[in-house]
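Q: Convert this sequence to structure tokens.
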Amino acid sequence: MGTMLIAGTVVLVLLGFGNHVWWLAAAGVFFLYLQYGRNASSSASGGASSGSSPATYQAYRKRRDQQARWERRYRRERPLEARRQERSK
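A:
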């Protein structure tokens, strides 16, 4: 998606040699990509599970606590599988 936006920006810049309004449109598209495109694409593709670090300590704590709750629930709901996984570690 980012590649398409950058290609569109380049096309708008090239069109801008004939009409300068296209340069403003290119600047607007590029600004919106920088503002929203990079962050939205990383959170949509997995966010914290993809290896990126959280922005704040509070976000880190929230994610860590959520992961701990999921692990406790998994052990509670599937005790045999959880024990088997603990043994194989």
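Residues 13 and 19 are 10 Å apart (CA to CA).
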